[in-house]
Amino acid sequence: MTLDYNQQHLIKMANQIAGNMPTRENVPAQIVQHMTQFWTPPMRADLKKIAENKAESLSDEVLAALALQD
Amino acid sequence: MNKPIEIAIEDIDLGTPAALSDSTVTVHIDGQAVEVPAGTSVMRAASLAGTQIPKLCATDSLDAFGSCRLCLVEIEGRKGTPASCTTPCQEGMSVKTQTPRLDKLRKGVMELYISDHPLDCLTCSANGDCELQDMAGVVGLRSVRYEEGSNHLEAGKDNSNPYFSFDASKCIVCSRCVRACSEVQGTFALTIAARGFESKVSPSEENAFLDSECVSCGACVQACPTATLQEKQVIDLGVPTRKVKTTCAYCGVGCSFVAELRGDELVRMVPDKQGGANAGHSCVKGRFAWGYATHSDRITRPLVRETTDSEWREVDWPEAIAFAADRFKAIQQQHGVDALGGITSSRCTNEEVYVVQKMVRAALRTNNVDTCARVCHSPTGYGLKQTFGTSAGTQDFASVQQADAIMVIGANPTDAHPVFGSRMKRRLREGAKLIVIDPRSIDLVQSPHIKATEHLQLQPGTNVAVVNALAHVIATEGWIDEAFVQERCDVASFNAWRRFITLAENSPENLAEISGVPAEMIRSAAATYAKAGNGAIYYGLGVTEHSQGSTMVMAMANLAMATGNIGRNGVGVNPLRGQNNVQGACDMGSFPHEFSGYRHVSDETVREQFTALWGVDLREEPGMRIPNMLDAAVSGQFRGMYIQGEDIAQSDPNSQHVADALSAMDCVVVQDLFLNETSKFAHVFLPGTSFLEKDGTFTNAERRINRVRPVVPPASGLAEWEVTCALSKAMGYSMDYANASEIMDEIAALTPTFAGVSFDLLDELGSIQWPCNEQAPEGTPIMHAERFVRGEGQFITTPYVPTDERSTRKFPLLLTTGRILSQYNVGAQTRRTNNTVWHAEDILEIHEADAELRGVSDGDWIEVASRAGSTRMRAHISDDIPAGVVYTTFHHPVSGTNVITTDNSDWATNCPEYKVTAVEIRPSSAIAVGV
Questions:
Q1: Which of B101, B387, B723, B820 is the most exposed place for a label (fewest CB within 10 A)?
Q2: Contact map slice: A 8-67 vs B, CB within 8 A
Q3: Kindly report the CA angle at B389 between B385 and B390, in degrees rounded to 5?
């Protein structure tokens, strides 16, 4: 899967959110809450597709957050 | 109903400033009893009693001076004839202001003044607006007995300043200009040189004004009682004949001005003494730099074109609106409603912004609306809402006058918010301590009569580390205000924060190497802030425009709550907003996830209120932010955009990416004053209105809602909100308002913090600081006084996470950007004024060691290259910045500073990281353009 600019930026944003959560407790849930509040549904769906095809680009916490959304 | 645009303006000069005492005294002025605060001068008391004592050196914006000897009075039981301006009232004092002795003395004084003054009143440019002329009349001077002798009548003029003239022949050496420069502006550029007959006003030791330290704030011109210091516009056009009170459209201070006109021609802008934000002061931009409004570059007829490589075609309004609507509808049909979006502008009124976001949500049927605050203060919105409960500064500007320790972080108030900067400097001269946290030595660090107690000259990108270290010291030294925390804050969150912040990893010693700030300086600054009494934080884009901008805002909020510095005068956490209506644009529901008043679109109760009033179903999911829209455009998913008053091709980071995104769209509609970098990619250009043509409100950085009144009619024939409504209607959704006042009424009906606001109340009170509602019918100067908006203050742990943008061998320097006094943002306005005499181009400031290493001399052309791109500008070798850091402004499109800034952004809000870009500098000939 070749990533376009939009996808690369989504990956960067998601990993950055994971890395900056105030506490390290329950980071995936915090990520979910943040993305629900500020990301559009297509952005969340695009990130999910990336996770399916290019999981190595996302942090474990982001992947766990996406799993929570299932 | 709209009020008439011209309103009564109180302009009686009471002679000396108000006394602040709570106790009063009663005095008798010519037999009339008047009760005044203790400490009030006899002159002011007389004026309040309706008796204007003649004066020349006195004015109520300046401390009494007592030099002109015109305001003499007789006081029962006292010898002589004391000056009324310097004599304080005492209980029971009986004063006579008019006696034959006083008449004779005053006439004698005036006779001496006039003996050395040109007798050209009829042809003088100040004829009818001259206090010397007025006083000659008041004292009944009919002739001058003195024969011609030595005088100053041939003294020359200094026309070097582009906006005002200094005619020394008309100077009476009253020192009002000198005192205004010192007391009001705080620059101390003017002095009285020499003594006695040789005395004269001298800018920076007898320089020309333009070459002096003068910052052209206009305070001296305002204070001058004669034609000595006068606006060139008045000299050219004549004395104004009518006045309209309105609000400046530059920075977030939001100064009130009186626009003075002859007919429909604006002669001058005079700062309003009653202005809540500025109290009669101004800066060079608001006072003088408004000529862009009539610049020949103004576009006043709508333009359209099929493709961006074809010529613009001038059309009438209906055709332009139909053209845009047809394109937008076609995009909706082919790509769906979320292929469109809009951007609101912080340069526009609340009413104009409100209708744009309403059009996007209701007519375009998407939440893809964002505002230029995305690229400046969106982290403020996030951080203060999380901690305090709402996105707003906590204080009014006047609060700084009660501060004991002032912490300025990532802001440069004397340049970017100069009128507030002057107010702050006044407090600092009175003895308040100052902590500056900034990589640069901004003027506040050391300027006349001001020296920062501590300057924490940190590495760009390490704000959070430094504030965590400050908090660590406060927590470990036992300086927490435990009572405040227990009473006002969420204790569980505080305990978690305390555990975090006291970890050794947050100690100043541990973070010194990262931040570049010595541990002992951090410890000293922590003591200064925590132990001063009233500690106040003021911050700017040097806080927000980082990858951890939101974290930093929360770190500052933690610091203020931990020390109990919230909820009263003299304290608080205060964003200095960049543009005039950043606060308002955010308040009005410009963010893609929020309706007006910062309520999430997913809140069903709120959405139902909007649905009921707007008559349309609204989306419950957040829309795209500006960078998301641009990314989606590059990917082909986003196809059309309505851009209100923002030049994103110049102002947003990574210009090439912005250009790629705009080029990929099928329809870009730009609403602005001038064709700009963004309009190069536009298909429709809708001419906007300057602030002089607007009718509405701006909300400044202290939440103060000010009226913007139309000074002249819209050059394009339509108000901007009318244009937006026309496009909305063409898209199938009608928005019908008879005037801007009706829009505010709708805002008030839907926004709890604006519930009590109306144009009528604004006209009555002058201005209102929100929240304005049943609980606070006249507004709220200080927020969180009894409880936080969210209830209890929320502490949030703020781990320091370094930015990805780091200096490397290829790009070893860190570039940070900022604003200069004379220019404003992308320069669309100020570049079209005479302000270019001070700053005609963007310059890169570089430390001597870095310059020498690269063979760069002062004034050399250089290439500045980052991983995003490269640009050319000239270098200035400066010791204001440390080695390893370079600095420039972004006012000129030719230098294109944002060509080199990257797409890094704040983790929570996507606010661009303008303040940290790794770059390399080389002499211009040594590097190819483009990277």
A1: B101
A2: 9-10, 13, 16-17, 19-20, 22-23, 34, 37-43
A3: 60
